[in-house]
Amino acid sequence: MRRLLIGVVLLSLAWPAEGGGTFALTAETTRAIVTGIDHAANLDYARARAAFGRLQDLPGGDLLHPFLDGIVEIDEAIEADRSEKEVATVLDRFLTRIEPIVTRGEALLESSPDNPDLLLTVGVMRGFKAVVDRTRKNYLEAYREIRASHRHLTRTLELDPGRVDALWPLGLYDYSVSRVPALLKPLVSLVLPTGDRERGLDRLKRAAQEGTFSAVPAAVTLARILSGWEEEYAEAVPYAERVATRYPGNPEFQFLLAFLYSETGQTRQALSVAETIRTALEEHQPHYPPEFVPRYLQLRGKIAMDAGLHEEALALFRDAIERRNAKLEWITAWAHTRTGMIYDLQGDRDKAVASYQRALEVEGRGLAHETAERYLAEPYRGRARRPDSRGR
Predict the structure, then answer these.
(1) Are 252 and 367 within one domain?
(2) In this structure, are 199 and 315 located in the same domain?
(3) What does the DSSP assignment read for 243-307?
């Protein structure tokens, strides 16, 4: 959810001046928000709050500040891996804070129904509220907010096709709804607009390329989608490079970039990023806790595996499993699954099956478990690599 939070901030720059007739976004307001966005994306929450705090003395700050500050509070709670109860409290507090802001925005829309800036802003806010409502299992409220958000954002583009920033949330919506299981699609179509995978990807790519405020969140979204469900690793590399370079203090982007370099056969580059991660762990840099050590070891094992260094990879996976911790059990599942994949490549089916079964015994449910199930049914035979976006 963190990437969505950052994106919502980026899309929320346009807020109506008092009265709602015109938008008064000053250069000073823009600088404060953009600065806060960059600090938040780099996980520097104190500086993000300081930047957003300056909005209190600027036009529209009585609305902008509580909204953006609430987003930072949620992001920080998730990043700090607080307890489920603590995160729930933060989410509920956000819903309480945003409700009057959404009400105010809708009231302004009644007097200015064709103001694309206002439609964009309220649409994004209601979309984000839907995410939080869904997380808190307020399902009916979430559906209501999603529909309103989609309606406002669609209307934004009807009024002004050049508002490319509206394409990021709409593209994310299109893609997400397109992935709803087939059995549930008839039910979903009764309450929500239909989604479209290709349209969603096209919208995200245009937002990443042309967006004023949505370029970064769209790039993050594409890096995740292309490296995950789509398995288009080479296409994901430029997006991951962009955010990893811009936000070096965010370990999620560093791990993703190293993974993608490895997947596209760029071993030297993957090892270089992995070395940066190792140094950050050894120096106890912010947001690189000791719990990340097995994650680093699993990453190094993946790089070795992709490079064909199977014995080195097996040793690293064993080390990652031995240093497992409850916070990153999905890493343990991946270490077992990839161990099984190597044994399959070596022709030792019994050991492969045992490794896949150990992966399934790890608590949780994720892509590692799905991969283990796939190769329990049919042995892993490797895959042909696609060249990366630069032909290597």
Answers:
(1) yes
(2) no
(3) HHHH-TT-HHHHHHHHHHHHHTT-HHHHHHHHHHHHHHHHTT-TT--GGGHHHHHHHHHHHHHHT
